[in-house]
Amino acid sequence: MIEVKNSIRFKKRHPTIRIQSVKQLGVMAGCILEFLYSHRVFIFLTAFILAVFQSFWQFLNLRANFPPGPFHLPFIGNALNFDQAYPHRTFLKFKKIFGPVFTIHLPNPVVVIADFDLLKKVNSLHGNALSGRPSGYVYGIFTVHKPDGDGITLCQGERWSAQRRFALRTLRDFGMGKSILENKINDHLGRLLKRMDSYLEVENGICKAKIDLSLHISFCVGGIINDLVMGRHHYFGDPEFVYFKKLIDNTLKGFASPSLQLVDAFPLTRFFVPYYRQYVREGFAIQTYFIKEIQKHVDTYDVETEPTNFIDAYLKDMHESNHKHMSLQSLAIDSGDLWTGGMETTVTALRWAILYLIHYPEVQAKLHKEIDNYLDVTPAQVSERHLLPYVQATIDELLRITNVLPWGIPHQALEDIEVEGHVIRAGTTVMFQVGTVHFDESNFPEPNVFKPERFLDEFGNYVPHKKLIPFGIGKRQCLGESLARMEVFLIFVALVQNFSFHAIDEKLPSIERRPGMTCVPHSYVCEIRKRHKNLIMADNNQFEK
């Protein structure tokens, strides 16, 4: 649970800001859990009977209140219907049968909107009404089951508006979309390039190395988001970072799992789902990590000093505005949301990028040619993206085909609305299915083929596709989109400019996906080869390896 030994206080002269301690609640909950666990057979039977009754109630009485959808089983819903690693395939199949609006059960009913034009129309007409987040049991575990949630990602209403508005303003102040942030990215990118270069050895006249880039990319992207959120970064190999990254990975993997969806629908089953305890323990460990970080900032906070990171800026705003929705608990959750959102999806996209270059050497060759022709030995700048149309096309195709968030983050209807003749009641969970848009043949012909050329015209000019929406659509569109696009562009170009990537002994690494909230590749080791005598990177890189 969230725990702070003492009330958190600003230095002398400043008002006290407190965060609710739930240590006693945690002890009490632990005692209750132990009692229930000792009587698990009785509790299991009770939970099973109640869950089956609830499922049959939904099955027999509530079906008419939702758009049509596939047949679902009591208790487990449509869990057996889905390809967990490629859920977009199942969604596309359902779309062909039931149309662009249909209902699935996970096991609670979820209304799916699976068409770009309809998503655009719905968000234009009902954007505010669909800006909510589900308030189920699993969603509420880490927000102490507040009615409207907390933080940025799992929050709605006035509290969410306050957190999002502050986060957007602060990130813009820190240079999101500006050269000041580009310099910060280049600092951490330089660390990555130098570290990769240190592994290289000359063999048969080729400077090369065999390496798993996952952790290296994670430290690079993690360093950027750490600087923004905390004002510091971890040195490469720091066990604290490695442990924290593992917690994030496990939580995201479990979040979309059928077992936790079962717990969300029938909370009593949490006593019998083996993974549930680990999920809760690791989730609160993440919050504790940020609570401890916030405590450090509170101890050193000075109202006269201009903030250089998100946490300090939040503390300053709390001190000056005393806004009712700004609290240290919200700050801890905000920080975790920003860190996870800014870290995991970008790292995953870059890991996929290298993997696809290995599988498609002809694409890699075209990238080398374009970068060498236009940049030569000059590092890339975001303002020069227009000079690299094939690079832009390749990045767009990577964002489309990798479908990093295959399930998305569900919405909740805050009021009754009508969509394509179907009344969606307030409180209904609604899913914007971006994967079905990106893999719909009518939008992107041969959707399962990696083809950057689909984003180029007949003259080789880059042409953005209006139906490419990897960062979502509507009021809940990713607030860090410009940061993510900047990171992916600069890091991707620098990697391809300095190195080439190859399979080891001509054995291609797996391109199959692993199931989870984020679509991650299996771990792989590749061969990297240096392309130039000297590294090409921004001049402001003065740092340790």
UniProtKB/TrEMBL annotation:
Output the Gene Ontology terms for molecular function. Answer: heme binding; iron ion binding; oxidoreductase activity, acting on paired donors, with incorporation or reduction of molecular oxygen, reduced flavin or flavoprotein as one donor, and incorporation of one atom of oxygen; steroid hydroxylase activity
- Tell me the residue numbers annotated for binding heme: 478
Q: According to its record, what are the GO cellular component terms?
A: cytoplasm
The answer to whether UniProt assigns keyword Ligase to this entry is no
Membrane-spanning residues where? 41-60
The record's Gene Ontology biological-process terms are: organic acid metabolic process; xenobiotic metabolic process
What keywords would UniProt list here? Heme, Iron, Membrane, Metal-binding, Monooxygenase, Oxidoreductase, Transmembrane, Transmembrane helix
Q: Which domain of life is it from?
A: Eukaryota
InterPro entries given in the database record: Cyt_P450, Cyt_P450_CS, Cyt_P450_E_grp-I, Cyt_P450_sf, Cytochrome_P450_fam2
Cofactor(s) needed by this chain = heme
Q: Which Gene3D superfamilies match?
A: Cytochrome P450 (1.10.630.10)
In the record, which residues are listed under signal peptide?
none
Name the protein family. Belongs to the cytochrome P450 family.
Output this protein's name: Cytochrome P450
Taxonomic placement = Eukaryota, Metazoa, Ecdysozoa, Nematoda, Chromadorea
